[in-house]
Amino acid sequence: MDTIANLLTTIKNGYMAQKNTVVGPYSGFGLRILEILANEGFLNNFKVISLGAIKKFEIQLKYDGRQPAIDEIIKISTPGRRIYRRSHNIPKVLSGLGITIVSTPKGVMTGRQAQSKKLGGEVICQVW
Questions:
Q1: Which of 11, 44, 61, 123 could bond 76 through an S-S bridge, CB–CB 3.0 to 4.6 Å?
Q2: Do the beta carbons of residue 10 and residue 3 sit within 8 Å?
């Protein structure tokens, strides 16, 4: 089960349905991805909620009027096919208007941060 794909699909479907908040599956890796999306201005906020023994994310989606902050989220690496890139080969999204999220040996970060630190890693997703 790919919890990151489920989380990204939950966010994408929430934007398509024009919802203000969505609830997605919790994971530590997902926490770091949501922190990056919030810091880059793609989400308003998020918090971890407990439903009994189960943790979930409550994610507040961001809109500019009626226009969603995220047009597209594409999962690049999958459990069956991992995609790794060196720092100088990390793809740019829409000439820098979007972001690439990369899992490096120093943690999960944007493609720009990984390139500035000269770190390669697994390309998780692209957002614009």
A1: 123
A2: no
